[in-house]
Amino acid sequence: MIRFDEVSKHYDTHTALRKVTFSVEKGEMVFITGPSGSGKSTLLKLIYMAERPDEGNILVSEWDTNTVRESQIPLLRRNIGVVFQDFRLLGNRDIFENVALSLRIRGVEEKELKARVFEALKSVNLRHKTENYPDTLSGGEQQRVAIARAIVSDPLIILADEPTGNVDPDASTGIIRTFKDINAKGATIVIATHNRELFRNTGRRLLKLDFGNYTGEELG
Ligand SMILES: Nc1ncnc2c1ncn2[C@@H]1O[C@H](COP(=O)(O)OP(=O)(O)OP(=O)(O)O)[C@@H](O)[C@H]1O
Ligand SMILES: [Mg+2]
Questions:
Q1: In angstroms, what is the span from residue 148 Cα to ligand 1's centroid?
Q2: Of the candidates 8, 30, 36, which has an alpha carbon nearest to the alpha carbon of residue 21?
Q3: Cβ of residue 201 lying under 6 Å from some atom of ligand 1
Q4: Closest Cα to residue 28, out of 220, 166, 170, 195?
């Protein structure tokens, strides 16, 4: 589903990723881990093609960074739900509309749209906050809205960047459970985190980065 082949990414003189090779199978849930600055967010940005590799090749579903046209990238992104490290909620729309947006773009009819938005918000325990605006929510609540928004359209791939960075341990457990449920329904999930508690005893693969180098994998 996702394959990196000798991928390097440089920012000016700084190398954020150095000849990274790994793959994630369809239907897997894996963790990318490593200290702050090791390249986790960069790796996720390369998967949804917000950044392009300087060397090497990346394959995401049927899209290949060496051959993909700029005009195909929106289509690729429709298949990927992203939980950004900084949430990126729209401040001028309420929580319902933030989560509904991707369904509206697809032209999903109102009754189905409502059912899906409520279901997604329920799975992150925020069904009661639909009419609030993002700036009235706590950091952890905003993070959970970002998760609801990423899962609402049933994407093929979910990328989550430090998705429990702002929540307490109980909410963290709930979030991982939500990802597991979605994964059980077939989504491929990649979670970047430096929080070891998140993957402890999950039995899932951990792909490890250190200063931009891929340093191998182990099981959680
Ligand atoms: N747009 C950019 N311009 C210049 N340098 C960048 C840029 N984005 C990332 N970097 C650098 O690349 C390295 C990897 O950054 P990245 O954000 O991928 O790390 P991370 O593992 O996600 O860290 P954290 O755990 O703190 O989120 C860092 O040294 C960072 O300073
Ligand atoms: Mg990061």
A1: 25
A2: 8
A3: no
A4: 220
Q: What is the CATH number of domain 1-79+155-220?
A: 3.40.50.300
Stronger pLDDT, 133 or 196, i.e. the higher one: 133
Q: Where are the domains of the chain?
A: 1-79+155-220, 87-154
| Helices and strands of the chain, counted as H and E runs | 7, 10
Strand-pair partners of 7: 20
pTM score of the predicted model: 0.95
Ligand 1 atom with least separation from CA of 209: 21
- For 109-133, the pLDDT digits (tens) are 999 999 999 999 999 999 999 999 9
Average pLDDT taken over every residue of the chain = 95
Atom of ligand 1 nearest to the CA of 34: 21
Shortest CA distance to 77 belongs to which of 117, 109, 110, 44?
A: 44
